[in-house]
Amino acid sequence: MTVRTVRSIAKIDDELCNGCGLCVTPCAEGAIELVDGKAKVISEELCDGAGFCLALCPTGALSIEKREAAAFDDEAAAGRTAEKLAAKDRPGGPAAIEQHCFACGRGEMDAVLFPCRTKGASTWVCAKCLPALIHG
Ligand code: SF4
Question: Is the CB–ligand 1 distance for residue 56 below 6 Å?
Answer without folding.
Answer: yes
